[in-house]
Amino acid sequence: MLRTVNSPVLRLSRPFHIPRVSSLPTRKLATTLRRLANRAVVYSSNGEPSSVLSTISYPDLPPPPPDGVNVEFLLSPINPADRNLVQGVYPVKKQTETLGHSSGVYVGGNEGLAIVKSVGEEAQQQFGLKEGDWVVMGKQQAGTWSSERCVGAQDVIKVPKDIGEVHGATITVNPPTAYNMLRDFVNLKEGDWVLQNGANSAVGEAVIQIAAHRGLRTINFVRNRTDIDGLKQHLQSLGGTHVFTYDDLSDKSTINHIKSLIGGSDPKLLLNCVSGKDTTSMLRLLGADATLVSYGAMSKQPLSVPTSYFIFKNLKTCGFWQSRWYNEHSREEREALMNAIVDIIRAGKLREPEHETVTIPGSTSDEEATQLVRETMRKVEDGAGRKVLLRVENVE
Amino acid sequence: MLRTVNSPVLRLSRPFHIPRVSSLPTRKLATTLRRLANRAVVYSSNGEPSSVLSTISYPDLPPPPPDGVNVEFLLSPINPADRNLVQGVYPVKKQTETLGHSSGVYVGGNEGLAIVKSVGEEAQQQFGLKEGDWVVMGKQQAGTWSSERCVGAQDVIKVPKDIGEVHGATITVNPPTAYNMLRDFVNLKEGDWVLQNGANSAVGEAVIQIAAHRGLRTINFVRNRTDIDGLKQHLQSLGGTHVFTYDDLSDKSTINHIKSLIGGSDPKLLLNCVSGKDTTSMLRLLGADATLVSYGAMSKQPLSVPTSYFIFKNLKTCGFWQSRWYNEHSREEREALMNAIVDIIRAGKLREPEHETVTIPGSTSDEEATQLVRETMRKVEDGAGRKVLLRVENVE
């Protein structure tokens, strides 16, 4: 249901709200008196998300400023980086915010799909935004684990509704990371090989699919596991050319087998989200003048490279961080990036990530909602598997 | 003494030579009959230079082909890479050569100063080379540990005589490595900081001087040693801004002191010839968007970098190899590079490397010359210190 925040109807509704909650304890009554229609998942100090996150409610938003839009978040993922930021181990400085009575809090969530609820005049004229549009966040750390927020019109990017809510909610981080890493470092042409590790990560799977879409061939490495054949089949069904385990790297005959598959057209790009010794072992599969791009370090080990690779094989190593990419690129470039990803989705070449949706119902109290958020985070911390997409409902 | 090889006079001299050596044993007589006027330091299989190197004598050169020049080497350094190549641990493939009766040998020496003895017609017309010119080698592995060789005119670069023999003999490897590393990776402007380790290496000292010449400031790291103050004074006298030891990197207050010296203008370039943990420790002194260029690995350890530096600080790491530079650049670019170094030398901003000259006298037998070469190599292997410049005389 579309609803213009701060509309006369809603403002008038406040007095009528009191009777409904008059039977609740005083403290609850006091907050409810302020017509706390919105909710956010917040923290005020760093720690494990399952311990430090809580939900707060806050009043309806005022109309947006001329260059702003009020948006309602439909679906916002819990990404690993979000958890690291709450833990205090992600190098992003967030400003504390004040939401209603709650001051000095950080609102969680970086990525998310939102629907435009009301638009400032400039925002309308300059960016063509209108009520009902779907938008994603072009600015980092927008606090997407919330129901409604006011954001700068220049910081959102419109996306079409035919891609669906799940693609919309997950389109700004993982697919563009894969897309940009395959584009910005090595000039790859059809048939070229790309090596990657952590191939079953969200980015890894996007790499496989976008590479396949471009006619690139991928050699994908994953950890060995009980159902390794199932995982190999899954990654190959996404378009992965070959899948191996890190264990294979210690077997010289497998190395030679991989080299024979490559057939002399040595890979010039290695995408790394693991580091540690397994990544070092992968270097021997690279050709001269190759680039190793790191976007993660799941092994929690450094990247260790024999110096001879740099000097004699002209290896380059660097990093990729989609957040920096957004900060360093114009609004037009961000839009072009989103359009490119939308095209791939529309072509049916990028699957929705496996996910489950957790709704924080508007009917729950903040205490109940906090418990639900913390339970969800515990499951995420246990590595239960599928990506969780949060839907924080307006408070009823 | 200038002498045109293969001149009628020399050809006529053969018969008259026999009586002089008629009292020598038959084997020696047989070789001497061929007028073995030249000598080279060669090896036919890899191993320690002090074991596998020997000298051979070979006849006067025929006149050069139209696009060639015959040159006489005046002075040729023994560089660490030369030793590694003999050991078989340097990734350069050399073709075996035939010199007179000696076939299947590799001639040692990559760098050297030579004087032009005779010039092919094209070489004269196209490259303006003439007898008596000083030239250095623009092509790698020219076999400079020899008296006279024929080389392609396009593979030599003229240098002026006023720079002196020692600068001429050492101008193609270390100074251009330093010059290019300070130019090709980061756009440095006057006052910018450069970090380096192995600062007392030949390249390290060239870095200090060329950086100072450009108004760049250097923070130089060396191993701690008994006479560390003397070394610090020496490097500062070359123009090094600050000198620290790797031990200082484990002291937080020294780190903070260095940071205060840098004063917020964080270095964007780290030149590395050490690798290992000391180099990892240096990373914290770098600013964002920095580049680490490796040109050596004296620790024999890999370069180990926490992945976060790549992702969040946008660190890039790569390598530099002057040999590759020559291979990838045109003759004009090589000449421009030499001219730039010559200008710095003429401006008095680049000192001759500390060195000693070892002459392989023309009066010695090949056996004696071999012993002298091997003794010299043993001294070099012991790390006696100063760079050795070989002068392989024509055989008398």
TrEMBL record, chains A, B:
<dbReference type="InterPro" id="IPR020843">
    <property type="entry name" value="ER"/>
</dbReference>
<dbReference type="InterPro" id="IPR051034">
    <property type="entry name" value="Mito_Enoyl-ACP_Reductase"/>
</dbReference>
<dbReference type="InterPro" id="IPR013149">
    <property type="entry name" value="ADH-like_C"/>
</dbReference>
<keyword id="KW-0275">Fatty acid biosynthesis</keyword>
<keyword id="KW-0560">Oxidoreductase</keyword>
<keyword id="KW-0496">Mitochondrion</keyword>
<keyword id="KW-0521">NADP</keyword>
<dbReference type="Pfam" id="PF00107">
    <property type="entry name" value="ADH_zinc_N"/>
</dbReference>
<keyword id="KW-0443">Lipid metabolism</keyword>
<dbReference type="GO" id="GO:0006633">
    <property type="term" value="P:fatty acid biosynthetic process"/>
</dbReference>
<dbReference type="GO" id="GO:0005739">
    <property type="term" value="C:mitochondrion"/>
</dbReference>
<dbReference type="InterPro" id="IPR011032">
    <property type="entry name" value="GroES-like_sf"/>
</dbReference>
<protein>
    <recommendedName>
        <fullName>enoyl-[acyl-carrier-protein] reductase</fullName>
        <ecNumber>1.3.1.104</ecNumber>
    </recommendedName>
</protein>
<comment type="similarity">
    <text>Belongs to the zinc-containing alcohol dehydrogenase family. Quinone oxidoreductase subfamily.</text>
</comment>
<feature type="domain" description="Enoyl reductase (ER)">
    <location>
        <begin position="51"/>
        <end position="390"/>
    </location>
</feature>
<dbReference type="GO" id="GO:0141148">
    <property type="term" value="F:enoyl-[acyl-carrier-protein] reductase (NADPH) activity"/>
</dbReference>
<dbReference type="InterPro" id="IPR036291">
    <property type="entry name" value="NAD(P)-bd_dom_sf"/>
</dbReference>
<keyword id="KW-0444">Lipid biosynthesis</keyword>
<keyword id="KW-0276">Fatty acid metabolism</keyword>
<keyword id="KW-0809">Transit peptide</keyword>
